[in-house]
Design a protein that fits this description.
The structure is a single chain. By secondary structure, the protein is of the alpha/beta class. Strands 3-4-5 form a three-stranded parallel sheet. Strand 4, helix 4 and strand 5 form a beta-alpha-beta unit. It is globular, with a radius of gyration of 17 Å. The termini are far apart. Bound molecules: iron/sulfur cluster (SF4). The site of iron/sulfur cluster has 11 residues, from helix 4.
Length: 175
């Protein structure tokens, strides 16, 4: 957006206006997977006040959410459910991988934990830490807001380029 030096007039584009609205009202899907979710809940509380960024409205229905915060480790059994929530969210939509476990499996380097949620959903922002504190999640929010405002496209969907990884919802487990 730009303002006239003589005042009274603001010019912008439709894209800028839409992106401004999107980044100012990110509504996260209401779910948590492990200990990182406790920090995510704290971020929504009065002390950290996620409402400052327009993101305090956690929605219990994916149909009403445009942001997925993957807060915690994703077990192989949970992976299809996480993917289903993502698919049920209307676009445009974004994903934050919160913490080491969601980003790369963390300390759980074993067959039961998905070694990075970017194997099943496209991740826009990774937040480091075990767990990341609320300030770190808020920084992730602001990074995502800047990307949305700049019109940065979402990363490619892993379902489209690594079908051998995600086609088996049990990730090779037989039981
Ligand atoms: S990154 Fe640490 S705090 Fe977060 S889910 Fe994994 S073990 Fe728990």
């Amino acid at each position: 957006m730009s303002a006239s030096p003589v005042g009274g007039m603001v010019t912008t584009t439709v894209d800028n206006l839409a992106n401004w609205g999107r980044k100012s009202s990110l509504w996260p899907a209401l779910f948590g997977l492990a200990c990182c979710a406790i920090e995510m809940m704290a971020t929504g509380g009065a002390r950290f006040d996620m409402a400052r960024f327009g993101s305090e409205v956690f929605r219990a229905s994916p149909r009403q959410a445009d942001l997925m915060i993957v807060a915690g480790r994703v077990s192989a059994k949970m992976a299809p459910a996480v993917r289903q929530i993502y698919e049920q969210m209307p676009g445009p939509k974004w994903v934050i991988a919160m913490g080491a476990c969601a980003s790369c499996g963390g300390v759980f380097n074993n067959y039961a934990i998905v070694q990075g949620v970017d194997l099943i959903v496209p991740v826009d922002v990774y937040v480091a830490g075990c767990p990341p504190n609320p300030e770190a999640l808020l920084e992730g929010f602001q990074i995502l807001q800047k990307k949305i405002m700049a019109g940065v496209p979402n990363p490619p969907d892993p379902m489209s380029y690594a079908p051998e990884v995600v086609s088996d919802p049990n990730f090779g487990r037989t039981r």
